[in-house]
Amino acid sequence: MRIFVTGGAGFIGSALVRHLIDDTEHEVLNFDKLTYAGTLSTVERVAASNRYRFVRGDIGDAAAVRAAIAEFRPEVITHLAAESHVDRSIDGPGAFVQTNVVGTYTMLAEARAYWLTLDEAARAAFRFHHISTDEVYGSLGAEGLFTEETPYDPRSPYSASKAASDHLVSAWGHTYGLPVLITNCSNNYGPYHFPEKLIPLMIVKALGGAPLPVYGAGDQVRDWLYVEDHVRALRAVFERGQVGRTYNVGGHNEKQNIEVVRTVCTILDRLRPRADDASYAAQITSVADRPGHDKRYAIDASRIGDELGWQPRETFESGIEKTVRWYLDNEDWWRPLVAAKAAERRGAA
Questions:
Q1: Can 192 be counted among the known catalytic residues?
Q2: CB neighbours of 161 closer than 8 A, spacing ≥ 6?
Q3: Which domains does the chain have, with CATH numbers?
Q4: 113 alpha carbon, distance to own chain's centre
C-alpha cells in the first residue's frame, strides 16, 4: 500500500516510517514541517529506499497537503503530526490549537476531497488513521483503566487540543462517511525521542551532571509503551482495523515517575558510572508540580489484542534497558539537539 505519514520525522512518526520500510513492502511518503522536534536524521538509514520519499510541508497548509496527496495518491493516511509537549502547551497553547485542531481539520478536508475522486473499490479500501493520546480521558484514581468508552475529560491545553482533533475525525466519519480510525496510546519511549520528554531528558541531564527535576513527589503514574511496539500496533490498525473504531494502545507497564527516573539512574550507574562512583540518583531534585498535573493514566488495551492480535513485546525492564543503551551509543544524534536547544534558550532570554 501507499502510506502517507504526517509527522514522519518526529519520534513516533519516524519509528513508523522505519518500521514500514524495514519490515513491509509498503511505500511511504513522509510529510513533515521539520519543527524543532522533527529532524530527518531519525529516518536517515531508510531514506535511500526506493519505497520512501519526503515532502517538507505544514499540515495547516491546504495547498501543500493537496499537492502531496494528489501526487502520491495514498491508500492510507496516518496522521501523527502534532504539538505534543504538555509543558509547552501550558506556556503557549495557541500553537497547539493551530496545529492539532486546525491542522487536523485541514488534513480531513483534503483527505475527503481526494477520497471523493476515487472509484468505489478504492474508496472502500481507503483509511484515514488519526493517532492520539490517552491524555484525552483525563486523570484516573488509584484503580481502573481507560477503555475506548471512557468519557473525554482533558485537563491541559495539549490534551484538549488532541480531544478536539479526535472529535473532528469521528465527525468526518459519521457525517461524510470518510473511513476513519482512531488510536489513543499511552506514554511512548525509545530511540530518537527528542530530549525534552521525561526519559531522554533524565538520561541527558544525568550524563551532564545536572539536577534531575521531578515534579512534586514523582508519584504520578503512567503506562509506558515502547515505541516499536506502538508502531506495530498502528500498522495492525490501519491494515486490519474496523472502520470507525477506536483502539487504545498501552504497554501494560504502569510506573510512578520517580520509579522511572530511579530505574534510568540504576542502569546508568551500571553502564556508565559517575567519576566519583556515586549514584546518578543523587542528582534527583524535586521541583514544583506542573499545573493541573494528571495523577494516573492506565490503558485497557484488550480490544486491539482481542480483535487484531496485537500485544507489546517489550516489558518496561527490557525496553528501558534498550533505550538507555541507545542514548549512550548515539550521543552524536542527541548532543547537537541539546546544544541547539540551549542556544535557543539563551537567545530568547
A1: no
A2: 83, 89, 93, 96, 97, 99, 100, 101
A3: 2-189+226-251+295-313 (3.40.50.720)
A4: 27
Contact predicate 176/112, CB 8 Å: yes
Alpha helices in the chain (DSSP H): 11-23, 62-72, 86-91, 93-96, 103-115, 120-125, 157-176, 198-207, 227-240, 257-271, 302-308, 316-329, 331-348
Class of residue 25 by CB neighbours under 10 A (exposed 0-12, middle 13-18, buried 19+) = exposed
Walking along the chain (349 residues) 10 residues at a time, the average pLDDT comes out as: 97 98 98 89 97 98 98 98 88 95 98 98 98 95 93 95 98 98 97 92 97 93 96 98 98 94 98 97 92 86 98 97 98 90 47
Q: What secondary structure letter does DSSP report for 292?
A: T
Angle at which helices 331-348 and 316-329 pack, to 10 degrees? 80
Catalytic residue among 114, 158, 192, 327: 158
At position 340, the amino acid (one-letter code) is A
CA distance 40 to 42: 5
**In whole angstroms, what is the distance from residue 290 CA to residue 296 CA?**
14
Set 27, 32, 58, 135: catalytic member:
135
Q: Which amino acid is at 297?
A: Y
Sheet strand arrangement including 180-185:
52-56, 27-32, 2-6, 76-79, 127-133, 180-185, 246-249
From 27, 32, 134, 148, active-site residue: 134
**Residue 134 designated active-site:** yes
Number of helices (H) and strands (E), helices first, in the chain? 13, 12
Environment class of 175 (CB within 10 Å of its CB; exposed 0-12, middle 13-18, buried 19+):
exposed
Q: How far is CA 157 from the centre of its chain?
A: 17
The x, y and z cell numbers of residue 246, run together, are 477506536
pTM for this prediction: 0.94
The residue type of 336 is P
Q: Rounded to the nearest 5 degrees, what angle is found at the Cα of 102, between the Cα atoms of 97 and 103? A: 105
CA 93 to chain centre: 18
CA 340 – CA 175 distance, rounded (Å): 45
